[in-house]
Amino acid sequence: MNKLDTMKDKFHSIAEDQTLPSGYSKAILYALASLEMYDYKVALSQTDLMEYAGIGSRNTLIKTVKQLESLGWLKVTKTKTSCGHYGNNVYEVLIPLENDDNK
Fold first, then answer.
1. Which of 26, 78, 82, 97 is 20 to 30 A from 20, comparing alpha carbons?
2. Where are the domains of the chain?
3. Mean pLDDT confidence for 93-103
4. What is the C-alpha to C-alpha distance for residues 49 and 65, in angstroms, rounded to an integer?
5. Residue 38 carries which DSSP code?
């Protein structure tokens, strides 16, 4: 499956899933899936992700990202710089297995 087909599958799965907990969930997934056009994993600051997804509150972002991780939609890898400070998180949009059956 090429990259464009993978992206189409992600957008379709996001659009069709009725179990996502809020509009913020879909906003985050769409924003990240759009950026994945250029790479399969996206390194972003929380501030940038908030801007891309249209979320104004850092607490809302953190809560929603945790929900998406627990539902199997998102993989987040925390990074550190060579100085030991936290860097940008790396985000990867996944399609949960239970959603694959609904295609």
1. 78
2. 3-100
3. 64
4. 10
5. S
* Domain 3-100, classified CATH 1.20.120.1730, yes or no: no
d(CA 13, CA 95): 7
Task: Using the structure block, give the residue that is written with the tokens 């539902």.
Answer: 71
Q: Would you say how long the chain is, in residues? A: 103
Output the pLDDT for position 31.
Answer: 92
Angle between helices 23-35 and 46-53 (to 10 degrees): 110
Model confidence over 59-69: pLDDT tens digits? 999 999 999 99
Segment 26-44, tens digit of pLDDT: 999 999 988 877 777 899 9
User: How far is CA 26 from each of CA 16, 72, 82, 86, rounded to the nearest angstrom?
Assistant: 10, 13, 33, 26
> How many helices, marked H, and strands, marked E, lie in the chain?
5, 3
